[in-house]
Design brief:
homodimer, alpha/beta, TIM Barrel, 7-stranded parallel β-sheet, two-stranded antiparallel sheet, 10 helices, 9 strands, 46% helix
């Protein structure tokens, strides 16, 4: 939900897009575009619309804070009604993600790990070569292992890198769902992503900036089933 | 400003703490504790109080998103009145931090880089050994170089690791201000941090949870000048 309209119009426009696309989507990802300008009450209202359409609400904060802050953040998010949160496993386990993971499991909430983002500069982070236990290794592969070990509910891999989606899908034996952002505006392809092993497509601006979000989502949905 | 009171009390309590401590501090760091529950209007009000006391407002989002999202986030933050934002250089430059850095410079806003956080698990990220140009290197040292190369306005190094503060202060020739969180509750020490080269101390819970925030901040301030 990457809306860039004036703050006063965001809630109305968001609800309108959700209502027109709800038959073709399964969840709504909400990020800083809405979380910063909208109040607690407005976010609650938005999520009640999302839930009334049998969709899930994912908070895309890319959390990478100390545990005390992560816990306060998810307390607010779960209170708002969110069903899952996106975190960066870079922040580490002890006094980092550990308490957030435990708390989220106990509340039956989802935690999705960033494993490789969709933009060019992602190579400066996720694509780094690291040295672990005497061996050279790509950092994103370390993040895949963290996702398994720390029991993530899903992993995020940019649609702009379909070969990585395939590699990661093989490594997880399709046991952890792969969410792939970067479809459309950023260059990612629906069919290639699905064929590579993506379970869920994350599409933002191609829908939001379209004159006919319903049509766009129904086309994406249709294309995602083409080869099945 | 790590407040954990009910959302309805946050604004009042925040303003009260700022007013009682403003003589002993130079800036207020605002994070998810306030940004999630408060509305745009409430954050604006809080920042007007901060500015009326001649203090600066820093948004601690630890931003690590794609450029399009980063730009929308800072648009909201600068509109709220914030003077600086904390980002994670892990996200990379191209289509990552580059446009945010350019835009922030043009608006005379500050961008602070995380270089090593204060919690135990920070070693899982900032403490990684990486391979670059055929050489083994600590990732936090790569982040110091990014801070120099990408012209960060400040770097953040946890007070729980004073030897790293010293190492990083030497590497930057004290040309980039070092902000150090983790003082007090997390175990960081005021005097050790200053002696190691920290320019600014970030203190959260020791002030917020105190019965007398004014006294706590005046003591920290006094201790920070002990050896000068």
């Amino acid at each position: 939900m990457d809306l860039t309209c004036p703050p006063t119009q965001i809630l109305k426009k968001s609800i309108s897009i959700i209502k027109s696309t709800s038959d073709n989507i399964c969840a709504v990802k909400i990020n800083h575009h809405l979380l910063l300008p909208l109040s607690l009450r407005e976010i609650k209202k938005l999520i009640s619309v999302i839930h009334s359409r049998n969709l899930l609400a994912i908070a895309d904060l890319k959390l990478n804070d100390i545990s005390a802050t992560n816990l306060v953040a998810i307390k607010h998010l779960w209170n708002m009604g969110f069903d899952a949160v996106i975190v960066n496993p870079f922040v580490g386990y002890s006094e980092g993600l550990e308490p957030l993971l435990t708390k989220s499991k106990s509340k039956n909430k989802g935690v999705l790990f960033l494993v490789y983002m969709s933009h060019k500069g992602a190579k400066d982070g996720y694509g780094l070569d690291i040295f672990k236990q005497g061996k050279k290794k790509k950092l994103y592969l370390e993040f895949v292992e963290r996702a398994k070990r720390w029991r993530a509910d899903g992993i995020i891999v940019g649609a702009t890198r379909p070969t990585l989606i395939k590699e990661i899908s093989n490594l997880t034996n399709s046991l952890i769902d792969i969410y792939t952002p970067g479809i459309g505006t950023q260059g990612g392809d629906v069919s290639k992503s699905i064929k590579s092993g993506a379970d869920y497509l994350i599409v933002g601006r191609s829908i939001i900036n379209s004159k006919n979000p319903k049509l766009v989502t129904s086309r994406i949905r249709a294309n995602s089933w083409l080869d099945c």
